[in-house]
Amino acid sequence: MTKDKILEAAIHQYSLHNYHGATMQKIAKEVGIKPASIYFFYKNKEALFVAAFQKLLENHFERMQTILEEVREKPILDIFATLMKGTVEYHKNNMNETNAYISLITSPPAEIKKFLHEHMNKFDAWMIDSLHHLIKRDHPEKSDEETINLTRQFILLLDGIFWEINLYDDEELSEQIEQALHILDILLGGNNNE
């Protein structure tokens, strides 16, 4: 479908040229249509990129939800590990989107900043709500405040792992994940002498 191709081209062009360099002409050329045809689907460049980023962020969000559903019954440390490894796998398998996401996060266009902020709050709230209950299930002795803080600490570690995807090879990245999981194990009250 042309609309989906336009969104994919917008993300690809953004990953190459950022917001201002990803012109409607370049997007149209990649899709094989005239620039004016884009306006049939989107009223302007801002609307196109909001839709493209929404698709990009929702795809990632849906993948994280799927991963969590697949491992929901496992111990919390296994859930943390699977979410971290799943994040790495998802981003490595979708490097165009990952590069666009990195560019979006590091220098968001003013027109998109509010949308991005709202999405990040939604994602973090979902993570906190979902993981809070799973931590409580495995560690009922922890207070709500402790489980929420632990979830925030996990999100922080997950963000750090994300930023390392383009910096480390697979072996080094696996070691970084193991170190992050060791930190989480300690925070959960596990053995900190390893």
Automatic annotation (TrEMBL):
Keywords: DNA-binding. SUPFAM superfamilies: Homeodomain-like. It comes from the Bacteria. GO terms for molecular function: DNA binding. Residues 23-42 bind DNA. Gene3D superfamilies: Homeodomain-like (1.10.10.60), Tetracycline Repressor, domain 2 (1.10.357.10). PROSITE patterns: HTH_TETR_2. Transmembrane segments: none annotated. One of its GO terms (biological process) is regulation of DNA-templated transcription. Residues 1-60 form the HTH tetR-type domain. This is TetR/AcrR family transcriptional regulator. It comes from Lederbergia citri.
